[in-house]
Amino acid sequence: MSDKNRLMDLYRRSVLQHSREPKNFGRLESASLQAEGHNPLCGDKITVYLTLAGENIEEITFEGIGCAISLASASMMTETIKGKTILTAESTLSDVVDAFTHPEKPWDSDQHGELAALSGVRQYPSRIKCATLPWKTLSAAIAGNHQTISTE
Amino acid sequence: MNPNQTRKKDAESGAALDNKRIRSDFPILAQSINNHPLAYLDSAASSQRPQQVIDAIRHYYSHDHSNVHRGVHTLSHRATEAYEGTREKVRQFINAESTSEIVFTKGTTESINLVADSLGRDFSPGDEILISHMEHHSNIVPWQLLCEKNGTRLVVAPINNQGELLLDDCLGLISDKTRLIAITHVSNALGTINPVENLIIEARSRNIPVLVDGAQAIPHQAVDVRALDCDFYAFSSHKMCGPTGIGVLYGKQQWLDRMPPYQGGGDMILSVSFKETLYNELPYKFEAGTPNIAGAVGLGAAIDYLSEISMPAIAAYEAKLLTYATSAIGQLPGVELVGTAAKKAGVISFNIEGIHPHDIGTILDHQGVAIRTGHHCAMPVMEFFGIAGTARASLAFYNNEDDIDQLVTGLKLAIKMFQQ
Ligand SMILES: Cc1ncc(COP(=O)(O)O)c(C=O)c1O
Questions:
Q1: Out of A4, A6, A130, whose CB is closest to B358?
Q2: Report field, pTM of the whole predicted structure over 0.90
Q3: Residuewise pLDDT in 10s, chain A (152 residues)
Q4: Which residues pair with A81 in a beta bridge?
Q5: Which terminus of chain A has fewer CB atoms gathered within 10 Å of its CB, N or C?
Q6: What is the CATH number of domain A3-144?
């Protein structure tokens, strides 16, 4: 892949779009679960909010600052997770983190849908944490972990 | 010579600096990164090394290595000569009075920790340490640790929106309780050159010691510790073309004499018994254990190299390049410069509207341009400006306008990509 194309592969149109106008962005006043995630490398912080209806994640939002990769990842995450049961969400997030952090495995596009647009990040070891931060923060929120989690 | 004449002469020597020849001394610069020539604009994080430094270290390990100060054999003698030879080179380079005042450390960070631990040992609750809002974490956290230990208070002098120290406010914060002033000479995040001279004059009249963090000043300008009249001056070899893992604490003898040892071990003692241990003379009192001898050898070669080019010539060359770079970057759409002090060294911190510094860093890396992105170990500075971080291009005398042009081309691509 040419160099320019590799870059375009990282910053695909949908990634840039999500980062410019992230979905489900903002504080959720009624949140029953929330957690804060922190990437000490760049100082980025993100908070993930959830409301539950029984076993279902009824609402999910996030707020914070971050690079295009982390914002797009967070935005796509809220769309992927919304309406899922906690159990499904947990297994999805563990699959997604696994997919991001194992560049040697083929990306299963059937499984992760739109998130495939972010698969280019796997070629950038220093940027993988940007993509996983929202998911790890979601994991902390589900676990009811109120301590700030960190990518380090 | 009056200052104007000196400046003129400096400017002339700057024009004379042979950048092409200098670049050929740095093997690392002659490579491609992602199919582009490397434009290394991250020297504030760590500079690169000329072949002369690499060769000196290789020669030392190939021919001269042994432990220092310990043997009667030839190699020990050579190693000691090399190690102590660098101490004399450092003394000359910063115009200290005596080699007793040159303590080798791991780097700026350890130099500052040494002073915090040793000088700070008899600070009491209520005593104050004055720093500025633009310090590197390594000139903040050691003082915070000290405050935790003995109840000393950390007082922080404010800065303005250009990233300049508010000198009058700073002077106003000096009190009868101030035990030490610790301030950076040049800010690594903003490039600001601080008026440390004025601060030192005031401190001197009140007999308060001043520690200057010289990590970012020493590679870019001539430093004369006696003209400055500072009490401590800390710097790192790796930012001035020398190896990592070694640095210097300059301390006036009157302070170092009074200060208790920092760490205990070999070399820092005269005699040890279970009844009484006598500490070695200066500077060895502060150098426990086998030191970084090869590091010192490399630092010595780096000082020779810089001295041959001459620090005033380097300063003049970099000042011109800074002007060029600042205007080229400043003209790009959406760019906001962070740190616009009247007196600046070769650091350009900036943000581009709608593009996170990390993304800028990745896109530039794709075009062979190495810059630093993030908070630059100066989170209070970022907090002051209400930002999470910046993109930072930092200059050295081996950079040239081509590097800046490559940076600008890269930034244009980033802007275009994020506008689509
Ligand atoms: C102003 C300043 N002070 C201190 C340091 C710490 O230097 P070192 O990490 O070499 O100990 C740095 C390095 O980034 C710096 O820029």
A1: A130
A2: yes
A3: 666 778 888 899 999 999 999 999 999 999 999 999 988 777 788 999 999 999 999 999 999 989 999 999 999 999 999 999 999 999 999 999 999 999 888 887 777 788 999 998 998 888 899 999 999 999 999 998 666 677 66
A4: none
A5: C
A6: 3.90.1010.10
